[in-house]
Amino acid sequence: MNIVIFGAGAIGSLFGALLSKNNNVSLIGRKPHVNAIKKSGLKIRGITKLDVAIHATCSVNKVNSSPDFLILTVKSYDTDNAIKQAGNIIGENTTVLSLQNGLDNVDSIKKYLEPEKIIAGVTTYGALFSEPGEIRHTGMGTTVIGELNGKKTERIDNIVRLFNQAGIKTTASPDITKDIWGKAVVNSCINPLTTFFQCKNGYLLDNPILGQLVEKICQESTYIANAQGLDFSYEDVIKNTKNVIRNTSENYSSMFQSYRMGKKIEIDSINGKLVEVGTKKGVDVSLNEMLVYLIKGRK
Amino acid sequence: MNIVIFGAGAIGSLFGALLSKNNNVSLIGRKPHVNAIKKSGLKIRGITKLDVAIHATCSVNKVNSSPDFLILTVKSYDTDNAIKQAGNIIGENTTVLSLQNGLDNVDSIKKYLEPEKIIAGVTTYGALFSEPGEIRHTGMGTTVIGELNGKKTERIDNIVRLFNQAGIKTTASPDITKDIWGKAVVNSCINPLTTFFQCKNGYLLDNPILGQLVEKICQESTYIANAQGLDFSYEDVIKNTKNVIRNTSENYSSMFQSYRMGKKIEIDSINGKLVEVGTKKGVDVSLNEMLVYLIKGRK
Lengths: 299, 299
Fold this sequence. Notes:
2 copies of one chain form a homodimer. By secondary structure, chain A is α/β, with parallel strands linked by helices. Chain A has 2 domains: 2-174, NAD(P)-binding Rossmann-like Domain (Rossmann fold, 3-Layer(aba) Sandwich), CATH 3.40.50.720; 178-297, N-(1-d-carboxylethyl)-l-norvaline Dehydrogenase, domain 2, CATH 1.10.1040.10. In chain A, 46% of the residues lie in helices and 18% in strands. Chain A has helices spanning 10-19, 31-40, 79-86, 105-110, 154-165, 176-197, 203-206, 208-227, 234-247, 254-260, 268-281, 286-296, and strands at 2-6, 24-28, 42-46, 50-52, 55-57, 69-72, 95-98, 118-123, 126-131, 134-139, 143-147, 170-172. The first copy, chain A, has an 8-stranded mixed beta sheet, sandwiched between helices. A 4-stranded mixed beta sheet of chain A has the order 4-3-10-9. The model of chain A has no long low-confidence stretch (mean pLDDT 96). Chain A binds chain B through residues 193, 196-199, 203, 207, 209-210, 212-213, 216, 220, 284, 286-287, 289-290, 293-294, 296-299, and chain B through 193, 196-199, 203, 207, 209-210, 212-213, 216, 220, 284, 286-287, 289-290, 293-294, 296-299.
């Protein structure tokens, strides 16, 4: 298959490297990373050890047009821009897979493409950008991919097979919107708190006071998701969030990674979107709102 | 007058130095500060320039017993301990003046003394502990002192006169409980936020996002105070808080000062007490609770 991965961050590069074994993959990323890959290939370290020569470029015009799959792995605040640029290469048979964090990516993509061209995915793989040309695979996880309307289709089967062949444990999801919200609710808690305390995920449960705060935030975010019509129980969300924290205790959240690298932080499409939805639905958004303020208020 | 000041922090030392011009003052403080004062006197710098030889000691047993006024300026988490120790020297005619931050000091003192012996005060003077033996007077302010029952009494007139003679601008308050709450509501916002962002007070208004958060916290704290029967309007509290921030823009809040010095933080008796009261009264305490968690969760 011809695959273009737009967003050569940690997850984009890791999946790109794995998929490149059996597919024709192009990575679109930023200059230092692209230059390092051109010079010495893409190195994956940590759980996966892999050195691949992979096509990498900064410009969407330098990749073959009409790929079978365009996988979006940019940060949510770059989705609009990425999909506008990618317009030139999205062909009649190209499917766009949003494999991103945040609640607003599919809506952003829909502004430019018919919904039929879009599928979405959620992954709990952990990866870290070590340095240009090198990614650290820090956590095994699962990936789910599905049609926006929940239907079982051939293209979902195809990409699920492709991912599994590449060693990325993946299943088809009958309700990808719920999966996206499920991850966002977990992230609404872990991401801002780890950014604040500049800590590994595990610290949130090492400290009993923070453990209580984790529960409070999960509760508010769950109620917002419920108000939006998503059927989560607060108990399950708490259990799931604590499991994620335990399973990724030595990892740094994507938000804290961005913060450390001095990059823009993906808070608007997680906590910010929860505030927007909750406000519209008339449910309490105090904690999420305060997290947005506190993260954005940082010097 | 014979005055003992228990708690030779920034405010205790500043007021001690000023009052020592016309009164017999003893300061009770910690060893490094007391030793420096014994060796080279107490230095006030900044707005006030003053060098005084003043009696300083670490032990309550080394001061004359039965002073006219025992002024408590310890942090609120030390009130219990201080008043227990001071038991030995509090005489029949001694009045105890709590000149502290926080909402639980008077209740703590009442556990050991009859309410008639207690008066309370609130000051907006700004001071900073520069180094042992030296205090920086950073902000002019006003001080109010009153009986717990709101009555006009001779001892209030006396201490108000004493303070004014010492150059501490002071008036008698007809409702000191409201004044204490008024300051706590302002502090509930300024103290934890400046501690978080490790910033001068002024930063809270330099940053428009934090300005919005200031308003939200003021609102919640005002509603808690209202539920407790204290008649504040949200608009006045906002205006007052913003004025305090502007007037003390170059200052560091007492909470951030404690944090910087690696000392215990006075959050329980400000935001913690607001959470306790609000929970009892059934009003929303989300933001104050989160501030308590976030401050206590710090590494």
